[in-house]
Amino acid sequence: MLQILSTKQLTTRFIHTGARILNKKEMAVRQASLGGVDVDLETKTNVEKLKRGIAEFYDESSGIWEDIWGDHMHHGFYDPNSTISLSDHRAAQVRMIEEALKFASVPEDPMKKPKSIVDVGCGIGGSSQYLARKYGTECTGITLSPVQAERARALAAAQGLENKVSFEVADALNQPFPDGKFDLVWSMESGEHMPEKAKFVNELARVAAPGARIIIVTWCHRNLSSSEQSLNPDENKLLDKICDAYYLPTWCSTDDYVKLLQSLSLQDIKAADWSEYVAPFWPAVIRSALTWKGITSLILSGWKTIKGAMVMPLMMKGYKKGLIKFAIITCRKPE
Amino acid sequence: MRLLTHNMLSSNIKGVTNGFPLRIEVEKVVEKSVDFNPDFLKNMLAKIEYKALVEASRIMGYAELPDHAEPSMLESDDFLRKFHHALMELHLEEGTLVCPQTGRKFPVNKGVPNMLLHEDEV
């Protein structure tokens, strides 16, 4: 499982590799973000602040996003090096869902397809609606944002899906469901918000029924090499700026997720780097923000949203440097 | 919040072993018409906690659902329609869900339950 190194061991390694020594506090933050240790009171308070920040950010920003981009609050999936027009993005966002389901080998056979689905970090319900329709079954979505939950409910009702999808304000780290409830556990671009990755993954596994598939599509940082204990200072600096604007806790790598899933004895674990398939996304979002509609909407939205918009070029920079990865990690809970 | 949703919610406050079902305190119930789907209902009977549904529907003001359900009752159109009404058509718009073990209240506003726990409850 997670190995907690002594300061002496860390120092020895760093002298040999020349990498920066993480001070005790930074090490605690990284360990805490992976969830390997009990969190102290200061970290607990920061987690509460983070959750409030996330809720407020989405309370404030969901409207403008929906206005310009629609009800899918995630990246589109694009053929590499293709030229995209604005109208293609919606189709790309739908394709992202389909590609993720395919990657995880979610069965479509009427006997084996999922009969109950949870959308963890559901936004305004884009995925929930799509999955409920696709499998003809019920889906429930959870979000920290009361504004999103209410909007999700209204949108579903407008689509005649009110009897198939439901939404609750709830915490992905403490899901209000009994064990083993869902055949498909879906987390589309919400993992990056989760402050304690181990707890997050644990909850996904807990609410998954035997045989269920778990799909995590999320932003990660690049995998560390075996000689590295952390990213280099420039990389951390870039991520810190992004974290601040998007209410993200410390990032982890795709490898970290795989290790967590392995530690829970989940099966058929698969992971991939889809960064090349999402490359057109941020430039498109930036372009949409720079339109007359984009600018006026941003001004009306509020400071949190504006800050989020200003940081978008940093996301592009992170991808270009190979620091930020768009990752998919899937697995199956044993029968 | 319809009772199908209520049937999957539980209180996961630290230390609670008996968090299901949540007790319902009603402020406003709305009845919404939903397309009747017998196949869906037949699948659902095995998956839900029937007793919790009966209790919840009574609190919501609907007393027609029989206390116990046998699989054979799925052949009865009359039962299916009552089951359908209780499970899918009764909505708690405003009210509270109460943890059966600790009494902690979770609000339901505009049909959306708020199940967020406080710092000291996790």
Automatic annotation (TrEMBL), chain A:
PROSITE patterns: SAM_GTMT. InterPro entries: Methyltransf_11 (IPR013216), PiNMT-like (IPR025774), SAM-dependent_MTases_sf (IPR029063). The keyword Transferase applies. Residues 117-126 are annotated as: SAM motif I. Pathway: Alkaloid biosynthesis. GO terms for biological process: alkaloid metabolic process; methylation. Residues 118-216 form the Methyltransferase type domain. Residues 207-216 are annotated as: SAM motif III. Keywords: Alkaloid metabolism, Methyltransferase, S-adenosyl-L-methionine, Transferase. GO terms for molecular function: S-adenosylmethionine-dependent methyltransferase activity. Residues 180-188 are annotated as: SAM motif II. The keyword Electron transport does not apply. It holds the Pfam family Methyltransf_11. GO terms for cellular component: cytoplasm. Belongs to the class I-like SAM-binding methyltransferase superfamily. gTMT family. Homodimer. PANTHER family: MAGNESIUM PROTOPORPHYRIN IX METHYLTRANSFERASE, CHLOROPLASTIC-RELATED, METHYLTRANSFERASE. This is Gamma-tocopherol methyltransferase, chloroplastic isoform X2. It comes from Coffea arabica.
TrEMBL record, chain B:
GO terms for biological process: rRNA (guanine-N7)-methylation; tRNA methylation. The lineage of its organism: Eukaryota, Viridiplantae, Streptophyta, Embryophyta, Tracheophyta. It comes from the Eukaryota. It comes from Coffea arabica. This is Multifunctional methyltransferase subunit TRM112 homolog A-like. InterPro entries: Trm112, Trm112-like. SUPFAM superfamilies: Trm112p-like. Interacts with TRM9. Belongs to the TRM112 family. GO terms for molecular function: protein heterodimerization activity.
